[in-house]
Structures are given as structure tokens and as C-alpha cells.
């Protein structure tokens, strides 16, 4: 307290000066219309600029959320477009008719938007880490997609993070089909370019052409059918000569992957649980037979 009193006593003339200046400016702007108008015009200009900066900053921080929403919406629209197009071309042939049954399929699952926090492209077994985990509803074996197509499958999930096995992993093996052709195979990556992968086990009697689309088959219990994976670039014979091997240009740009969506589909999860139960039952039966 003593120090404060000494400080005020030492600099009291400065405080008196500031007080008198404030009072003089108040009297000047209050009782003189010209000076008052200049003051308020300047104050409004400054305030307007501050509000503009504030709005720009808020807009900048909101872009992340907007991008997530756009990615989620793009996934919905991409899947909807492919399903409806396939249905209309194969069944009705009328491209102006929309079947509500296809729209009902989209209501069976929800998408959990997530951001990629780490990603690798130069390894044989690449992994992707997402900023969403079990606390957000993410579970092991859920499919992951982005606005342009398939990304991978959830491998591990902690409370707030999850690890994904992407297509660019030697352990990835996703059931796919040639759109509108009805032939199936498995999409996998053998290393090298991050823009291409291969589909094996396509039968030799299959009819298709270059640039046909490769989509998820819906048989993996992870992805719904019709999600784009890529397009056919080249066709080879398999090493044993009993099937085709297709080089596929991937629809997902893994080098520029930022926002993704995890597919939370109760129907697919139920199918996966039934499949696991059947596998466990077979293992227990085989173990009992051995005893």
C-alpha cells in the first residue's frame, strides 16, 4: 500500500494531465458538431474494420467444419448416384425415375466424419490415423470412405483415435465388382504407386472393357455395395492363367487425404457378428472333433 501511495505521489502530475486531456476531448467532441462528426466517423470506421477482422477469423476457423460437412454430403451423394444409376440402367431403363427403395438403403447407416491426423504412402504396410475413436462410435472393422471413394477399414480404435488399414496396405483385401457387369474379385495393393492397385480372380469368361468402374461388392460385411474404388486401366492374365488381373486407377487420392467418413451401419455390423459367430462355432467344432 505504501509503494502504491509513493507511486501516485511521484507521478500525480501525469495523472492530472491525462485527466484534463480526456475532459478537454470530451468537451471538444460533445459541444462542437464538426469535430464530433469526425470522431464518430473515425470510430465507426475502426469498429467496422475490427468487426470485419473478427468475421474473417471466425470464417477461417469454421472452414474445417464446413469441409467435414461437404465431405460427408459428397459421400452420400456419390453412393446415391451410383446406386440409383445402376438400378435405373439395369431395371427400368428410365433415367428420369427415382426409386424410393434405393433411398431407403441410405437410411440404414450413418457416417461419422473424421480428420486424418497421420498418413503414410511410402511403406508396404501403410496406416492412417483418424481423430475419432470409440467415444465417437468408431469400432474395429468399420469401413472408411471419402468423397471420392473407398479409403480402408478400421483396424484399432481407442477412445479418441483410430487406426485404419487403407487400400495402400499389403494386408488390405476388399471385395469389389465391375459395375454393371456382375463379376467379382478382390482389390489389393502390391506397393509402388499410390494411385494404382489390382483386382485378382476375375474369371476369364467375364466381359468388360477398359475404364469400367470398380465398386464395392457388398459381400465383405464392411462396405455397402456400389461405393467407387477406381477404374480399369489395364488387363493381364493371372500367373496361373486361370483368371484375369486388372490394374485399377484408384479413385481416392491418398496423398491429399484430409477428411473421411467412417461407415456406421447396424445392418453390416449384425452381418459381421453373425459371420464371426459362425467362424467361432466351426473352430469349436473342429477342436471338439480333434479331441
From TrEMBL:
One protein family per Pfam: MreC
Transmembrane segments: 12-31
Protein family: Belongs to the MreC family.
Domain called Rod shape-determining protein MreC beta-barrel core: residue spans: 116-263
Protein name, per record: Cell shape-determining protein MreC
Keywords associated with the record: Cell shape, Membrane, Transmembrane, Transmembrane helix
Amino acid at each position: 500500500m505504501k509503494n502504491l501511495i509513493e507511486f501516485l505521489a511521484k507521478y500525480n502530475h501525469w495523472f492530472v494531465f491525462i485527466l484534463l486531456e480526456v475532459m478537454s476531448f470530451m468537451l471538444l467532441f460533445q459541444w462542437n458538431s464538426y469535430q464530433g462528426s469526425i470522431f464518430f466517423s473515425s470510430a465507426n470506421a475502426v469498429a467496422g474494420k475490427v468487426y470485419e477482422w473478427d468475421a474473417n477469423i471466425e470464417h477461417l476457423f469454421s472452414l474445417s467444419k464446413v469441409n467435414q460437412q461437404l465431405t460427408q454430403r459428397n459421400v452420400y451423394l456419390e453412393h446415391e448416384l451410383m446406386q440409383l444409376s445402376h438400378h435405373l440402367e439395369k431395371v427400368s431403363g428410365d433415367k428420369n425415375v427415382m426409386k424410393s427403395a434405393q433411398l431407403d438403403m441410405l437410411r440404414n447407416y450413418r457416417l461419422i466424419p473424421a480428420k486424418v491426423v497421420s498418413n503414410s504412402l511410402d511403406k508396404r504396410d501403410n496406416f492412417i490415423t483418424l481423430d475419432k475413436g470409440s467415444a465417437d462410435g468408431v469400432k474395429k472393422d468399420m469401413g472408411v470412405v471419402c468423397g471420392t471413394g473407398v479409403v480402408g477399414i478400421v483396424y484399432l480404435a481407442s477412445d479418441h483415435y483410430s487406426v485404419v488399414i487403407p487400400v495402400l496396405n499389403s494386408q488390405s483385401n476388399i471385395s469389389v465388382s465391375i459395375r454393371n457387369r456382375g463379376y467379382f474379385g478382390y482389390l489389393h495393393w502390391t506397393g509402388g504407386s499410390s494411385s494404382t492397385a489390382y483386382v485378382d480372380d476375375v474369371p476369364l469368361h467375364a466381359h468388360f472393357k477398359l475404364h469400367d468402374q470398380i465398386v464395392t461388392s457388398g459381400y465383405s460385411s464392411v462396405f455397402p455395395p456400389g461405393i467407387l474404388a477406381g477404374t480399369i486401366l489395364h488387363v493381364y492374365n493371372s500367373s496361373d492363367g486361370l483368371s484375369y488381373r486388372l490394374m485399377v486407377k484408384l479413385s481416392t487420392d491418398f496423398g491429399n487425404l484430409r477428411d473421411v467418413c467412417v461407415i456406421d451401419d447396424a445392418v453390416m455390423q449384425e452381418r459381421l457378428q453373425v459371420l464371426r459367430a459362425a467362424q467361432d462355432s466351426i473352430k469349436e467344432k473342429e477342436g471338439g472333433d480333434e479331441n
